[in-house]
Amino acid sequence: MSLGQLALHVATAPGDVAGMTTQDEVEVPDFGEAPTVSSTEELMTAYDKSISTAREILDGLDDEKAMATWKATKGGEELMAVPRIGVVRSIMLNHWYHHRGQLTVYLRLLNVPVPSIYDPSADENPLGLSARHGPAVRGEGRSADRGPT
Questions:
Q1: What pairs with residue 27 in β-bridges?
Q2: At what angle are helices 95-109 and 3-20 packed, to 10 degrees?
Q3: Which SS3 state, helix, strand or coil, does residue 37 take?
Q4: Residue 140 has what pLDDT?
Q5: How many CB atoms lie within 10 A of CB 61?
Q6: Which residues pair with 10 in a beta bridge?
Q7: How far apart are CA 126 and CA 116, in angstroms?
Q8: pTM recorded for the entire structure
Q9: Could you say which of 25, 45, 105, 128 would form a disulfide bridge with 141 (CB–CB 3.0 to 4.6 Å)?
Q10: pLDDT for the residue numbered 128
């Protein structure tokens, strides 16, 4: 999978998976060759649309619907039957985290600074560490408004 294909998959997964949860049973498609993007603008547009779709669908998910059985089939054969909320957790979220991790590896291999995902990344030097001297001396690498070191 190319960087563009992976980035688009990460961008669109939330909306695509949330969309699957609106049905009680889904026939798993043949995914084939993954689509790609040709610009950052195209990628961000796809991401914004995906997040908006996921929020809209999940906001309408009440407890009864969340706990109702959702099924995935392939060629008429049941592959899985789980509470719908399990699909959100395992397929939408865990799957998304997995591919975001892959994306950070791509960035690292391309010498692109890895952005913050959960907290600041090592590339953002969150502890104010100096490469040569260990912990930074007072004020080095820190903004004045962050308080004393």
A1: 73
A2: 170
A3: coil
A4: 44
A5: 16
A6: none
A7: 10
A8: 0.74
A9: 128
A10: 61
Query: Quick one: DSSP state of residue 142?
Result: -
Rounded distance between C-alpha atoms, residue 72 and residue 81, angstroms: 7
Residues of the chain with CATH 1.20.120: 3-112
- Axis crossing angle, helix 3-20 with helix 40-59, rounded to the nearest 10: 20
Give the span between the Cα atoms of 4 and 37, in whole angstroms.
Answer: 6
Query: How far is residue 29's CA from residue 6's CA, in Å, rounded to a whole number?
Result: 18
Residue 25's beta-bridge partner residues?
71
Q: Percentage of the chain with pLDDT > 90?
A: 54
Return the structure tokens found at 115: 């952005």
Instruction: Flag whether pLDDT at 132 surpasses 70.
Output: no
Supply the pLDDT for residue 129: 58
Q: Cα–chain-centroid distance for residue 149?
A: 34
CB 99 within 8 A of CB 12: no
